[in-house]
Records
---
Amino acid sequence: MKFTEKYPLAEIAALIDAKFVGDENFPVYGLNEIHVVTPGDIVFVDHPKYYDKALQSAATIVLINKEVECPEGKALLISDDPFRDFNKIIKHFSPFNPSHSSISPSATIGEGTILQPNVIVGNNVKIGDNCLIHSNVVLYDNTIIGNNVKIHAGSVLGADAFYYKKRESGFDQLISCGRVIIEDNVDIGALCTIDRGVTGDTTVGWGTKIDNQVHVGHDTIIGKKCLIASQTGIAGCVIIEDEVTLWGQVGTTSGITIGTKAVVMGQTGVTKSIAGGKSYFGTPIEESREKLKQLANIKKLPEIINKLKNYER
């Protein structure tokens, strides 16, 4: 998330009542998760395992729970609870703005676009030309829809990321302030859910077709001309490159890449990054030909065992 203007480090520190290390006028332009940070961003870190990654990232302001040496050209915000204070900054710069009508006055809707009854269009939503949005679709704030997009009934675009920190009192949610972006010529089936990015964008690329009851997690990027079949569950921060096919009930772990033109057969668990141009099957995932050979060999085990018994006699 980028702020609407530049803010000095000291002002951000005062907002969260934190100590700062660096020039009080050090420029702050926004905040982001570590995988999407750019210079001028705040990134937070609250576990020693990730200190070096955060300090060496592209972010130039690190919100951290330990006093450490500040890298050259960067600034620090020292907090006893960076997760809490990251949320404070989000709430300040991106407060929740309730809607008072089904279609927000701040939304823009292109020519030839049809909204069926009971569609909810949130604040600052942009919908392109010649789209068809069926009944009971919900487009949360800041969602962007391209041209010639079709969204079937009951789908929800822009709900919060599934991102929590466990505490003794329960779970604290990291507030989502990102967006969902749907490019041109995308079809989305009924009862799909596409979560917005935590601080960045969840994107569905040009010409991709999504079946019914598919879930897409936060900050995931789906490429062009992909096919995603029913009941597939895609975790957060996944990169799906162009022309990938995911058949029914595929599930993925987070933070992986599925290469261009990969085909993943139904009910496969994608537990790691996979190369493009190949077909995959099974859990744990393997190339489909190899997996099918293994299954065929398993069927031969009784015969092999009987032969061994006869040999021992």
---
Amino acid sequence: MRLRPSRLVLAAVLALEAGPVLAAPAPAPTVGPPPSEPPVTYVVRPGDTLFGLAQAYLRSAGDYRHVQRANQIRRPRALRAGAILRIDRSLLKTTPIDCRLSAFSGKVEIEADGRRTPARAGMAILEGQRVITGPGAFATFELEDASRVTLPSNTALRIVRLRNVLLTHAPQRIFKLEEGRGTVSATPNPNPDARFEVRTPVSISAVRGTEFRVVAAGDRAQTEVIKGAVGVGPGEAPPAGPPVPAGFGVTAAAGAVSGPTALLPAPKLGDGGQHQAGKAVRFAVVPVGGATAYRLQLSRDAGFVDLFAEATRPEPAADFGPLDNGTYFVRLTALDAGGLEGLPADYSFDRDLDTLEPGASPTAERDGKHRRFLFRWTAAGDGVRSYRFQLFSGTEATAPIVDQPGLTEPQLTLTDLPPGLYGWRVSALRFKGGTVSEKVGPLQTLQIGR
């Protein structure tokens, strides 16, 4: 799905002690900075010359002439200490910022020059590339300052700029979210010239250090602030109103931005969710007032870098199917009627498969004069098991008429049971890692004769 450009621009600015960073209009991705950006200011130090500055900090030594004309300097070898030079950003020398794909799952591709390459953990992410996640896929990449961007399924993000400016020691990190969703954790940077932007076809979010989510969906954009504060305004002008604080979100559409809406509170995990022993991993969520849907994400780490599954459901529950044993983490959020995703709640959970299921009711098999009834059951999960079989007269688990413990195989044959209604069940003792646990299966009924 291609997103339709719009004149609406959502400018988001994080308010920090060092002062706000103003967001510029969203241009098409280019290698150099757009011409609308203000020039960089430099305070002349004793001994500076335009020639020396050009050799150290400009893309070409001959670019000193541009700086000379822009600042009306007559003597490029005799600069006054303390004077302020204004230098076009496109002239500045830069070095690349290291960025690595720290984790991914599913079909994730890196596109460069129109060619797509399957993702590899640890591979470098470079300026000009696109990171594309397919259905059921996730990707997280980290920058050298520990800032992090996580992309869920069906998302495409372009790396517009990823470089350090040598003159100002200011990192320039600009991404374009072409479609889908993204979660950003930006490490604070006090440098007033540092930039961390996530653009969409209708918005810009410029931050210094915060955690927030961005959603790009056609001519509509949403910003949800988890940590920090983000100023939001329509059009190309910087926002004039107070910033949106943590715990609030806004929606931009049709040239206007909604007032801040309180994000729904973090949901609570239902009983039993942190101990997953069943055949399928399933979570129940305590309902949240005002929620129209719930989103659950699974990760292999507590920082939710290595995501591997996600489900969005209208009901407060989700089934993720089978999962290998281990310790994992689940993140819960609730979505309101406007589509804003609420605050997250993170839980660890242990996956330790331990199931005990009865087989089909036995049928009589003739063996000469005798009738044999083969009872079967199945168990799954690690460990060594010892089974106990009990047979009851009727459907109540009273005093058993057959009580056979210590079985090592998941089956037992009984011979010549008289006609009648019976109940039977199996329990299992599991020995694993020096501990013993018991699981009791459900009571089953068996009708023999009339």
---
Amino acid sequence: MPLVPTRRPLGTGLAALAVLPLAACGADAGTAGDGSARTLTVLAAASLTGTFTELAERFEAEHEGVRVDLVLDSSGTLADQAAQGAPGDVLATADTASMERAGDARADDPVVFATNELVLVTPAGNAAGVEGLASLDDDDVTYVVCVETAPCGALAEQALTDAGVTREPASLERDVKATLARVSEDEADAGLVYRTDALAAGADVATLDLPTSLVTDYPVTTLAQGAEPGLAAEFVDLLLSEAGADVLAAAGFGTP
């Protein structure tokens, strides 16, 4: 069994992911057969942190006795773990290529629920004077991107190639949140992240649009190994509902 990334249960600190108990037949909507609370585990791309936290809180409020655990990491990492049978009920990735890697772990045909766009960000003061992708070839400018196996890394590689940038990034970060953190904490002069993450960072970063729009699709599916298929389907329904679309739009995600 592969290692599963640290989960972020709502309202708690970091904890190790536990194997979920199977719900007994005849249990009510919020408890397992032994009367304990039921847990829905949602594996989601790091760029979905804010929106899925909000949707998870809403889901818990509508399902008494149900707890939603969000496992947030790079899409490729989560898809590979799902394919190897790691515990999980729902998988949402930041591109279709990562979703394909989940293979037979997908219980349903994935449905695209949102889109996102790559942008260039700098620390709020932009002390390095970054004006666009061409500035990344300046020896005095340090920039960071996601690893190539992450959807944000694949898009960044395409953007850099299209712009003719030849200098290597200062570092390759595991996901978009880590990339954004290096910039917002002024540890890098620039970084390539999603528009939604740049919006979430607020005044901590300045955002520069790319000359050519680079967009990625976000698909979701329930997982065959899930212990809570009924709750998983209901969570996907919430995500695809008008309420879910409103939460995503407020965060800056585009519609499919």
